[in-house]
Design goal:
By secondary structure, the protein is mostly helical. Helices cover 76% and strands 4% of the residues. The radius of gyration is 23 Å and the shape is globular. GO terms for molecular function: peptidase activity.
């Protein structure tokens, strides 16, 4: 039976060695996290932020042993210094000027710099996905979000309207406003915006990282399909809210069932990802059998 070369007590000792670094990061970012949790992360559009942060911390801990093993016998990298300094400058600029993208994004630069200075590039490679995943919690500029969100909302509204009209519902659309029966629904940013797309992208990439398929075709294919899967899940959510409002009234559409529709969004996205992964698995198995027959 395989055993880990690093025991649990040794891992705890290794973690304690990083305690000064953790304290330093806490001094910098606890105030920032408090501002986020009481600010934009409390909104529907940005509620994925703390979830991404929690998963990122778990991924860092999950790969901690692999990082320590990769660092054994390796030289540290002086490239960590300029990266670390850039991170500090971004934090100072973002914190002082209230630029959240710089303030929160700086933590990735700092972690990369610290890893290079203390462990080296191979150890950093062991944590690449956790650091990459943190990008999904970095708030984007409002101008970028608005520029991308409106076309997405228009597309989602168009598809939802046509599907419901095709199955016989009395629905019409003006821009991003749907009217079904006596009810009018505005497709909000939280229902079909850029942040929702990024959240579903993060979900798909996390799935890819956790299942760790060996097939490059399967990984690339599923990574490409995450975008249309995210769009489809958004359409399903808008259709769900529209039907809830039509059948049970505006109070139901804006109450508990509105939150339930959010759960439908993520469940449908996850099911679609698993479904497409299964299809790609079947295609890969068929291709291998065909290659074996030809050989």
């Amino acid at each position: 039976m395989p055993t880990n070369s690093t025991s649990r007590p040794e891992q705890l000792v290794a973690l304690l060695a990083w305690l000064p670094v953790m304290i330093g990061l806490a001094v910098l970012y606890v105030p920032s996290l408090y501002d986020l949790l009481t600010g934009i992360w409390a909104s529907d559009e940005q509620m994925h932020g703390p979830i991404v942060l929690g998963i990122s911390v778990w991924l860092l801990y999950r790969n901690w042993g692999a990082m320590q093993l990769a660092a054994q016998g390796q030289k540290t990298s002086a490239w960590g210094w300029p990266i670390f300094v850039i991170g500090l400058l971004l934090y100072a600029l973002g914190r002082s000027q209230d630029i959240l993208m710089f303030e929160i994004g700086s933590v990735i630069w700092l972690l990369v710099g610290i890893a290079l200075l203390n462990l080296g590039s191979k150890a950093l490679k062991a944590q690449w996905f956790a650091l990459f995943f943190m990008l999904f919690m970095v708030p984007l500029p409002g101008a970028v979000v608005d520029a991308v969100t409106m076309p997405m909302k228009m597309a989602v509204s168009f598809v939802a309207e046509n599907i419901l009209y095709w199955v016989g519902y009395p629905i019409s659309r003006t821009g991003v406003t749907l009217q079904i029966g006596q009810y009018m629904l505005l497709v909000a940013d939280a229902c079909a915006g850029l942040h929702t797309l990024l959240t579903l992208e993060a979900l798909g990439l996390l799935y890819l990282n956790l299942v760790r398929r060996d097939s490059a075709v399967r990984n690339i294919g599923l990574a490409i399909l995450i975008v249309p899967i995210s769009f489809t899940a958004n359409v399903i959510r808008v259709m769900s809210l529209t039907l809830i409002t039509y059948h049970w009234g505006d109070a139901a559409g804006q109450g508990f069932l509105h939150g339930f529709a959010g759960m439908v969004l993520f469940i449908s996205a996850l099911l679609l990802i698993i479904g497409f992964d299964t299809v790609l698995q079947g295609f890969e198995a068929y291709r291998r059998r065909a290659k074996g027959v030809n050989a």
